[in-house]
Amino acid sequence: MHHEVAENALNQAGVPATFLRPSGFAYNILQWTGALRSEGDVRAPFADTALPLIHTRDIAEAAAVVLTEPSHEGKAYLLTGPEALTPAQQTGIVADALGLTATYEELSVEEAGGALRDLGHLPEMLVPSVLEVLGPTPPRCPSRPPSRS
Question: Mind telling me which residue stretches traverse the membrane in this protein (predicted)?
């Protein structure tokens, strides 16, 4: 994980910091809209992995909290969304919002890595990080309910 390298460097340099570690961005599933409209399907890895995608508003609010309250210095927070959803569930939500019927096809990790590389806008060193799967979700920061839209 490349963020860990940056966090370690800041810690070793003695730079006061608070680390926000958002789970997958809810916004990223919008990239599926083109495939849903043209092909009626989404192809992605980790069919059985439910992730608590987070809205960027929630990340911004957490950042505002840690930037204005010194009690967070030196801490790290995994930021998550309100509900863990599988890619198939995410596909269904996006398809419903578009008024479409859709299917979800699972890709192997190798196929997904190839697809990410084929997009051409993601540096090679980030492909493995994008394909990492999150573990159990710790408590959220801040304490208000996360956004659902």
Answer: none
Per-residue pLDDT of the chain (149 residues; tens, 9 = 90+): 567 888 888 889 999 999 999 888 898 888 888 888 998 888 888 888 888 999 999 999 999 999 998 899 989 999 999 999 998 999 999 999 999 999 899 888 788 778 777 766 667 766 666 666 433 333 344 445 556 65
Q: Which domains does the chain have, with CATH numbers?
A: 21-130 (3.40.50.720)
Which residues, in sequence order, are bridge partners of residue 20?
A: 77
Instruction: Tell me the pTM.
Output: 0.70
Q: Are 19 and 1 in contact (CB under 8 A)?
A: no
